[in-house]
Every structure is written in C-alpha cells, then in structure tokens.
Amino acid sequence: MKSEDRDQLLDDLLEGDISEADFLRLEAEMIVDEEARGAYYNRLKLQSGLEKEAQAAAGAGASNSALRRKGSFDPFLLAAVGTLLLLVAVLAFKIKQDSAPQVAKEPVATGFGVIAELSAASWGNEVRISRGDLVPGKELHLESGVVRIELFNGVVIFLAGESEFALVSDREFRLVKGESQIRASGLDEDFTLTTPVGVVTGKGVFSVATTGSQTSVRMDQGAGIWNPTVNGKRSEQGTKLSGFETITGSVDGSLEQDVAPLLSNRDWEKELRDDRTERIRLWEKSRERLKKDQRLLVYFSMDESISDSSTRLQDLSVKKSDGGIIRAERSANRWSDAAAALDFTPTGSRVRLDIPGDHKSLTLMCWVKIDSLDRLYNSLFLTDGHELHEPHWQIVNDGRLFFSVRARQEKGSPDKHIAFSPSIWKPTDAGKWMHIATVFDGSAETITHYVNGEAVSIDQIPEELQPDKVTIGAASIGNWSDPRYRKDPEFVVRNLNGAIDEFAIFSEALDSGEVRKLYESGKL
Amino acid sequence: MENESKQDVEIVSLLTEHQSAIRFYIASLLPGEVRAADVAQQANLTIWDKRGDFELGTNFKAWSFSIARYEVLNFRKREARDARLQFSDELEEIISGEIASHIDDIDERHEALRECMKKLKQSDRDLIHHRYFEVSSLADYAEKVGRSAAGLKVSLHRLRKALAQCIEKRIDGKGLRT
Question: Which of A225, A287, A376, A387 lies 20 to 30 angstroms, CA to CA, from B69?
C-alpha cells in the first residue's frame, strides 16, 4: 500500500468513515508493518492535538457546557489544579452516572425496501446481502444471480447480474448497467427509472437493460415518457412509450423505435421459483445425509408432515430421542412452508427432551427466526436448572449469544465461563431466518459462536473453569425448566419470542468448514 | 488512615502524570469512536475505585493500561458495538505491547501542531474548531457557512493532511539541527 493511500485510510478510520473492506486492508497492513502503526499513532496524536487546540480556542470562558463535546477531559487543566479537582471530577461523574435517566432509544432502520428473494446472488465490493436484508442506499454491484427487491410502497424490482444500481428513493431507481424489471403499477405518483443515456418516467411495468452507452426499454404495462440524457443533461424532448412499445436510446441521444436488442425477455418469477425448488431439493438431500451422521445426539426438523403426532417431535437421528412439544405452535418454516416450524412465543412453550451420556465436546445448531428479544434471557437450549457439567445456550436481550457449561459445584465464586458473542441481532432483523451454531471444543477448551456459517467469536476457557465433560439429561428447546430454584422470578420466563425450524446437537466439535457446510446446504 | 491518604495523593499524582498515555492508549483501541473520552473517564473511575489494589513503587502504567483495556472491552460489550470495525486481537496485542514507547513525543508534536495551525486561514481554524469541539453536526455547520457537508469533509481531510506534513517537517528539521 502506498503511504498516501494508507494515510487516506487512516484518516477515514479516525473519522469513523471507513468501509469494511478498507478497514480489513488497513488492519492487515498494520499487523505486519511497524511504519503503518507509527503513522496510525501519529494520526492519533494529531487528532488529540486538534481536540485540545479546539478546546483551547473556545477559551477559558467557555463554561457554556451545552456547547462542549461530551466527555472532554483536559489533562493540562488537571495537572494544574491537581488532587482536589480530580476527586471532585470523579465524584461528579459518579453522581452523573448514577442519576442519569435511562432514555430508551427508538430503533431506526435505513432503506426503502428489502431483498425479498435472491438466487445464486453474489455481490461486488465485498458486500454481503441476504434475504430479508434492507437494501442500502448506496450504489450496489450484483455480480451474478437474480434478485427481487420489494419496496415498502409496493414497487417490486427484479434485477439480474451483472448489474450496477442504486435505490435513490422509493420512487426512483438508477440502473447504471445490467437488466431489470420494475413493477410500479399501483403507485399514485410517477416512478422514475434513470439510466446513463436516458430517463423513463411513468406508471406501470418497465423492462429495461443498459450497457451504459445504450439502453433498451419496454413498457409491459402502463405508459411512460423517455427523455434522453446527452452530456449529462436531460433533454426535454420526450418520447411516449406504452403497450409493449420498445425503444433503444444511445449515448448520443439517438433513438431507435421498435427494437430492444438488450432485453432478454426473461421470466423473472420462474427463474426465482426454479432456483428455490432446486435449493429445497438440495437441502432435503443434505438432510437425508445428515440423518445418518453418527455424531448426532438429536436432530429435529419441525415439519409437521415428518412427525406422526402433533405433540411428539420425531428425532431424525439414529439415536431416536423423540421430543415432546408443549404449547409451541406450528408456523411457516424458512421456505415459507406452512406448519413446518415451531413458534415458541406462547408463554410456556417448549420442546422437552432427554439426552443421555457424557460428552467431551458439543456442537449445537439451529435455524431460528427471532421476532423480539424481550426477555432478559431468550432460550435456545437449556438443561433443567443448571447442574454441574450442563450446557446453557441462549440469547441475551442485547443480542449477544450466551453459552456456558457449568464447571464447578461450589457456589459463590465463578462456577462457569460464559462465552458471549458480539450482538448478532437487532430489531430490524425481526422475522429474518438465521443459522446459529455454537461449538464447545473440550480438547482445545474453546467456545466458538457462528452466525450464518461464519465464526463471530471464539473464547478460550480459563483453566480453572474448564469442565472435564458435558452432560445434558432433561432439557428444553426454546425455554427453561427449573423446578428447583425459583429465587428470582425475572429469570424464569425465558421462552423464545420466535420460531425454530431445524435443530441439532452433535456430540463432537464440528470444525468451521463443517459448520459452514451446514449453513450453505440449508440456506435460503 | 494517614497511610491511606498518602497513597491517595500518590495515586492522584500518578493518574495525572499518566493521563495522556491512558487516553492515548484507549483512543488507539477505539479508532473513530467519539466516546473514547468517556471510556477514558470510566477507566479513571475504575482506577480510582481499585486504587487499594495498586502497590506503590510497581509499574503504574502497566497496571492502569490493563484497567483501560478492560474498560474498552466493557464498553464494546455494553454498547454491543458492531464488531466489523474492531481491530483483531492480534493487532490489539501488538498495539498494547508497543504503545508505551510511542507516547514520549506527544507534547513535542502538540507544540509543532500549535505552530503549524498559526499558518491556517481563520475559516480553516473555524472549521477545525467546529469539527473537534462543537456538538452540532457538520451538516448544520455546512448550512451556516453555505457549503456542502461533503465539501467540508474533503476540506477537513486536506487540512489534516497538510498539518500532518507540517508537523513531520518541523520535527525532522529539529532533528537535523541537533
């Protein structure tokens, strides 16, 4: 990396304005290059110097605290007034902290629509977008595959790779390159489709393809007006388009009517449907293979059609440890098949099971759709109570995954190491299916959390809290059964506000490749 | 009692002496985080609360840095921060290991910065003042001075670049003279 590029990235980093890809590039450089780290430290010193100078410029009279940056803490001032001031500052901060009212922030989401469906989609610039994600406002590069975007105002946009586009607003779509169809029939106002050589405005269904220097458009329904863009200026000279009329505009403003060489007349819905059918077929095939895996302690598909009873959950693994469904209701699974998942929202919902044996390691995985994390602890899989050697797998209300195996009998001092992941869920993820896996490796003494096939955290268990085995016994999916200690009622209601459609426990530690494969073979 | 207050006075003086280093260390682990100063404040509090654990005469810097690191982790957990823009453990270890040897020139660089800033236009100084001191957003300021926020961002980047170069020159020049 050239030092100039590096300095630009360091500047972006300190301004909190760096892309994930650039961040990773810069970090890799900083790990190996002492000079890069030196440059980073010097930039930090510059920043701190600028903060001090700005503060100094505000003058000694700047006691107008409303204008001051929060948390500004001047070491020079401190040195000058010494002991007393520090003690006062410490005390004042403490008081401020204790008395500060906790104002709940209303969650905010950004985007005009969501990715409703995608097939074999890969994105450029290291962007990762999956089904149910909000569409970012910036320009996106779809390298391959087909995508269906649903805007919140009812407009539907199909796109095929390779294409470059941006959702400018809920009434404007910019296609820089590629092929697309926009269904904007029900809007009360016109929809605007911008391409590099011209703009179409109207109501109806637009089929469009552009190379950047040439654009073909057809109105499959409704009517619109084509205005060419020449030298960056939109011409007022419009051409009316309706009823399957096609045009092809070029970069010089010229227009050919009744030809549309760039349009491929694809059946967007069929492509997505066929892809989905194929993915379900592959998933079912991999499920058949997985059923025979000898390492499985239990494997449930929550599909009602698989079990012969509405209250019994058939274990698909060779162990045949069936579960009992209590209160949980059937709901749609991640493929939208009815009655193929279990919804644990009704209070008291759970699946009861009993898993015998001692295990050195453990891998837990499930496909889960979380509607909200309104309990302090939201259960995935908890053994009854929390006895010695037993695992607990749940999600804290701030979105962090929690996994622990109790390692000590004595109470008082820490009796287990809790492995927390970073937050993996936020309110805008409500209703989105995700694959979660946690691996407890009893040999390496590590706990690794995975989300959608990728490791999000790894914990080394401290020596004094390493359990020598794992036992499960009586346990619940989606809730906690604790007949013995009910000291704190706040912790008792732990049923998951959401649904699970596939759940498995292995008696061994799966490696990252296997976890990835589990996700890939069953992903939407 | 007398010993306790003597220890307190000593701790306050150590804390004051190492304040820049602690803040610098925390900032290095939280790049681009505007609340890094709050984390430093919290670390000061924790250091104060735990002052009984510190043995006078041992390495205060190492002890306070371990508390600072802990407060950074705590902050990330509490804020459930997006882990994507967080340095890897590997890099954090490297930074923690070497940062103490990079703080000696903080004052010298600050002095150089002060000189370099004298050459700036008033409007540039105002912009810096706004960016590093005021609470209102850059967009509001942009409106006030009749420029675009994106334009101001570019200006700020150029200013920092120019100042960084000016500082290097001054420091190098000094080196030549000695």
Answer: A376
